[in-house]
Amino acid sequence: QVRLAESGGDSVQVGGSLKLSCAASGYAYSGGHYCLGWFRQAPGRKEREGVAIIDYDGRANYANSVKGRFTISEDKAKTTLYLQMNSLKLEDTATYYCVADCSRDLLPRGVGTWGQGTQVTVSS
Q1: Confidence of residue 102 (pLDDT cuts 50, 70, 90)
Q2: What angle do CA 21, 23, 115 make, to 5 degrees?
Q3: CA angle 9, 67, 112 (to 5 degrees)
Q4: CB atoms near residue 109 (< 10 Å)
């Protein structure tokens, strides 16, 4: 069973930085597929937005809205996923979810497992 536990959410000011972590267990490369990632859901929005994903070889894909500001990474043991967020903007305020079994197109329909989420609030 895949288990995902996010941490690191906080309140920060515009322009600040934050690093999210996700402890992942029970997920492994299988059938030529491996994908971990981060999604977010902004206040008042129904849909969750793909932020970044990483595959088994460490190749990442980012939403245009976060390119150049966010970096997704994974520890060597592939047990912890990270999201380094720099130059945070008001519009980055959201609940951030760690996901497993995702797809490079960053669409929520492709996600197999969701974490519980961690709140990030950016204020001016």
Answers
A1: very high
A2: 85
A3: 60
A4: 7
